[in-house]
Amino acid sequence: MIILDFATKTFPPCTMEQIQEGEQRIGIPFPEWYVEFLLQSNGAQYEYGSVGEETVPFLGFLGLEDSINVFEEYGEFDFFPIGSCDGFALICVDTKSNKFYYFDVELSEKKYLADTISELVELINHESYNYNLRVKTELGEITLEEYHKLLLKTNS
After folding, report:
1. Within a domain: residue 112?
2. Residue 65: domain span
3. What is the pTM of this model?
4. pLDDT tens-place string over residues 48-106
5. How many C-beta neighbours within 10 Å does residue 96 have?
């Protein structure tokens, strides 16, 4: 599957029963590509990647439970989260149009990215992004490389 082509870490797959329970829990059917993805891997991490014109660090595709939890937390928006960016942003699929958006959680703003999962994956720069940029965290100002490694440790 195209989502897994560049993944540096995959996870045990979901069962069809888990997927159906997830659909019932949130009250919407999952797109066919998402079901196929979950049957192969319940989430996928990317060691290097960025998405969109602003080259936002892309961390990977969320597993079923993480997607559902985020959906339930931010459910007043018409999206289903499928990917994680810099910790404060998500890649989402619109539950009505099935188009893909970058969603800034802090600003509650979404920006169109792609019409299909193939187009979305093509937008992801799998090479790298500018790791010399600095970000402010609770630990002080650190480079994106340090921040990315910290997130990978936290999520593993």
Report:
1. yes
2. 2-126
3. 0.71
4. 566 656 556 777 888 999 999 988 887 656 788 988 887 678 888 988 888 998 888 87
5. 9
